[in-house]
């Protein structure tokens, strides 16, 4: 059985590895718990670095940077996330309907199929611009989207505009197990 090599085990990848020619390399691995060496052909550039490993590393770093720059904002000053169980409990309690506003930022066709009770639809492409204008900063606002990131973005916009009671449903509709309404 081949298993991963612990981080502290050396992985030899140099043109000077014992018994390796200039175009091959020895790679440490574990077979049945004991160290084993396997040969793999790879080309080295003039600095002795493995060309395909550099390309792989560059690709992985590029993907990580792309994900980092497009990540939704984290909860911060002025807004938080609320889990579905907590929100379902709040919806089951008698409340002042003018204070709690549930804003679903999904597409209208998905909103019509199913949404949280009493929610209003403010579709995402325009929600970042419309929400600060159309919502009352004194309301307790809960944002709902597919899985969370769009709600995070709108929450950050509202918080930046001095809305102080803004929450986003963690996991969005994907994780919601509470009551639903249909239609518009």
Based on CA inertia axes, which overall geometry fits? Answer: globular
CATH superfamily membership of the largest domain: Rhodanese-like domain
The strand order across the widest sheet is 4-8-7-5-6
According to CATH, what is the class of the largest domain?
Answer: Alpha Beta
Unreliably modeled segments: 5-31, 36-42, 66-70
State the helix count. 6
**In this structure, how is the largest beta sheet organized?**
5 strands, parallel
> Between the first and last Cα atoms, what is the distance in angstroms?
57 Å
Q: What value does the Rg take, in angstroms?
A: 26 Å
What's the CATH architecture name of the largest domain? 3-Layer(aba) Sandwich
On the 0-100 scale, what is the average pLDDT?
76
The helix/strand series, from N terminus to C terminus, equals EEEHEHEHEHEHEH
Helix content: 25-40%
> How many separate domains make up the residues?
2
Question: What fold name goes in the CATH topology slot of the largest domain?
Answer: Oxidized Rhodanese, domain 1
